[in-house]
Specification:
This is SRR1-like domain-containing protein. The chain has about 325 residues and is of the alpha/beta class. It has helices at about 5-25, 35-45, 95-100, 100-105, 130-145, 150-160, 190-210, 225-235, 245-250, 265-270, 300-310, 320, and strands at about 55-60, 65-70, 75, 80-90, 115-120, 170-175, 215-220, 240, 255-260, 275-280, 310-315, 325-330. β6, α7 (about 190-210) and β7 (about 215-220) form a beta-alpha-beta unit.
């Protein structure tokens, strides 16, 4: 066996043992995500303003992993003349991703479920996007339609059967960038209706829980938001926050909404808090054996929901929400 083959075999054995160790950590109930680790990674990234500087992120085994970062690196696409920019961000890997040797071993350690990645976006995110008045009109149409819908009436009735505590925050993840309203394609209005649901739910909870002079703060986190999205949503009382500030806002007096995100929002949230309400993709199993997902179920998630939550119901408009359920914490 050549030296190269021996090195490859040894690396495969090391990777297999690391993956097995991660599973043992998970089965031992060791915390996989904590606010401290998330905050530490975010603060380290914020401090690194110079392109090329390395950011160190704490792994599950307590060691630090180094990530080289690039701030605002620009690339060009000759075919259409567009310019794209890379921005570093905190990123999260699900349990399933950490245990998949074919996906995890090529770039970094299986112990690194919090890491730094670079997102590519158009330098001018407004290219080809609707105008601010179009975005505002789309959201307003969705709000009026959703407030008058049978689906919302059924959800209000279902929520009314449960004791709800005092809600101080609503944090929404991955509701998407608002688009021009479409009368032909319902799915094209997903983002508008998801934000309409966020706004009507906030108004309902404020009136239902009788919070006096206090007002529940409303946050939304999605890197897809444009300047127009931000302006329109802020006019509705929604504060746009960068990743991971949404996670850092979540606590036991929070409502969490997350619909088909491309990060494992549910696996993160269950580790860092126990919100009053969670509204997200329906939990159907332990997350193994099905198709790969970016926000998969997990054994801990299944156990967490079973032990601490009641199922209120589901949002029946599949075109707008997909298979989403509402869970209320037991008191």
């Amino acid at each position: 066996m050549s030296g190269t083959e021996e090195d490859e075999r040894r690396n495969e054995e090391d990777l297999t043992e690391a993956v097995a160790s991660v599973r043992r950590l998970y089965d031992s109930s060791a915390p996989f995500f904590t606010k401290n680790r998330i905050r530490e990674a975010y603060e380290s990234l914020q401090e690194s303003k110079k392109s090329g500087k390395r950011v160190h992120v704490r792994r599950l085994d307590g060691k630090l992993e180094s990530f080289k970062i690039h701030h605002d690196r620009v690339s060009h696409v000759p075919q259409d003349g567009s310019e794209w920019i890379e921005r570093p961000s905190v990123y999260y890997l699900s349990l399933q991703s950490l245990l998949d040797e074919t996906r995890i071993g090529a770039t970094t350690s299986p112990y690194s479920n919090i890491r730094i990645v670079h997102y590519r976006e158009r330098r001018n995110k407004l290219d080809g996007q609707p105008s601010q008045p179009e975005v505002a009109a789309s959201l307003q149409r969705a709000i009026v339609s959703w407030r008058d819908s049978q689906s919302w009436a059924q959800m209000r009735s279902a929520l009314g059967r449960f004791q709800l505590g005092k809600v101080k925050k609503i944090v929404a993840f991955a509701l998407g960038s608002l688009q021009t309203f479409s009368d032909e394609m319902k799915r094209a209005n997903r983002s508008a209706f998801q934000h309409a649901f966020l706004i009507t739910l906030r108004d309902y909870l404020l009136s239902y829980t009788t919070q006096g002079d206090s007002e529940a703060k409303c946050y939304a986190q999605d890197p897809a938001y444009t300047e127009h999205d931000t302006a329109v949503l802020q006019s509705q009382g929604i504060t746009i926050v960068p990743d991971p500030e949404g996670f850092l806002e979540v606590n036991q007096e929070t409502v969490v909404i997350s619909i088909s995100p491309n990060i494992p929002v549910r696996q993160v949230v269950l580790e860092i808090s126990r919100p009053i309400l969670v509204i997200w993709d329906s939990i159907e199993g332990d997350g193994f054996g099905g198709l790969p997902m970016t926000d998969p179920d997990s054994p801990r998630l299944q156990k967490w929901i079973t032990e601490h939550y009641e199922t209120v119901g589901s949002l029946s408009e599949l075109d707008y929400f997909g298979d989403v359920s509402v869970y209320v914490r037991r008191f």
